[in-house]
Design brief:
Shape: globular
CATH class of the largest domain: Mainly Beta
Distance between the termini: 63 Å
Structural class: alpha+beta
Radius of gyration: 23 Å
Largest sheet: 8 strands, antiparallel
Strand content: 15-25%
CATH superfamily of the largest domain: Jelly Rolls
Length: about 350
């Protein structure tokens, strides 16, 4: 149930067994400077009930500098949701590690530069963050820094591991770290919660609690579908693995991508990953990467007066000659001839 007073940050514990009918209307207040200790924010209840402390009773994401964001938080049975809106253009650092799960939704945000690190995964310098999720399992360290091009709007969802829906076979579901993934069902529920926190219905505790439970089920469903099964390596990649790998390749077209990086993203050895990828896409990973670069080049060449040199450099080719040779091998045309054929 929603709580309108969160008394201590020392222990991670959600309120349980309090009668819902006796719970006051939930207060949704700004949290300024709430670091890992979850510092309490105080504000006056608009209904005239006096001063009430509102803060998470567990660690929350540490943000530095504090004055660069606005934070609002609400807690329900088994879940706390926090809406963070960046307000400036200076560098912002995020850090989190705790015995609870963290789901991060970048509802919007573009960074000029930055890096995101999550235990167990390669770092990411992805710039376009809009509608991307990050999942940080309990005990994992999450660090992110960026110089915002477009100030981000982020929602943090904190889950008590003990309150997540149980798996049919206890211990069978491994909640793996995931970096910048997409999932339509998760997105729909998470965005509804974010809008509630930021909107006029922030006191609708029943609806927020219901959405929190749905989000917890969606999260465990996603992880159940995303756990590599023994023997699955003999076939192609699962749908979730294909999504992760292709999204990563799209985001890093201009960079060399080691096979080990892609294999680690989906929990396979390099050998089994290469076999599974080829079975799923009918070509090896390197050829797929090259094919996507050529497709992107075609799109850029379709624009008026393109610069072949700048396109080649944008897509990671060391010089114009190597770009031209690769493009001609794939299409039978030089980049200039391809552009002219579209006129």
């Amino acid at each position: 149930m929603l709580t309108n007073a969160l008394r201590s940050n020392a222990a991670f514990r959600f309120e349980r067994n309090a009668p819902l009918a006796k719970t006051r209307q939930a207060l949704l207040l700004p949290i300024r400077g709430a670091g890992l200790a979850g510092q309490a924010a105080r504000a006056k209840d608009q209904a005239g009930r006096g001063q009430v402390a509102l803060a998470a009773r567990h660690p929350v994401v540490e943000i530095c500098p504090r004055q660069s964001v606005r934070r609002r938080i609400v807690s329900s049975h088994g879940m706390t949701a926090e809406l963070v809106q960046e307000t400036g253009s200076e560098r912002i650092d995020y850090h989190f590690v705790a015995p609870i799960h963290l789901l991060v939704l970048f509802d919007r945000g573009v960074r000029r530069e930055g890096e995101t690190n999550l235990d167990g995964l390669p770092p990411s310098t992805l710039r376009q963050l809009t509608r991307k999720f990050v999942f940080v399992p309990a005990g994992h360290t999450y660090c992110d820094w960026h110089d915002p091009s477009t100030p981000a709007r982020i929602t943090f969802f904190y889950f008590d591991p003990a309150d997540l829906p149980a798996a049919p076979n206890p211990g069978a579901v491994h909640l793996a770290p995931r970096l910048f993934f997409e999932d339509p069902q998760l997105l729909t529920t998470a965005q509804k919660l974010a809008e509630l926190i930021d909107g006029p219905e922030c006191d609708n505790r029943c609806y927020i609690e219901a959405l929190g439970r749905v989000l917890a089920h969606e999260l465990t469903r996603f992880n159940r579908g995303g756990t590599p099964r023994k023997g699955g390596e003999r076939g192609g990649l699962a749908a979730w693995q294909q999504r992760i790998v292709t999204s990563y390749i799209e985001d890093h077209l201009a960079e060399p991508i080691p096979l080990g990086t892609l294999a680690e993203l989906v929990g396979l050895s390099t050998y089994h990953f290469c076999r599974a990828f080829k079975q799923s896409f009918a070509i090896p990973p390197h050829r797929y990467h090259t094919s996507r670069r050529i497709d992107r080049a075609k799109a850029l060449l379709a624009k008026p007066a393109p610069s072949v040199t700048s396109i080649g450099l944008t897509l990671g080719f060391s010089d114009t000659s190597s770009f031209t040779a690769t493009f001609r091998k794939a299409t039978g045309f030089t980049p200039t001839a391809y552009h002219r054929s579209l006129a």
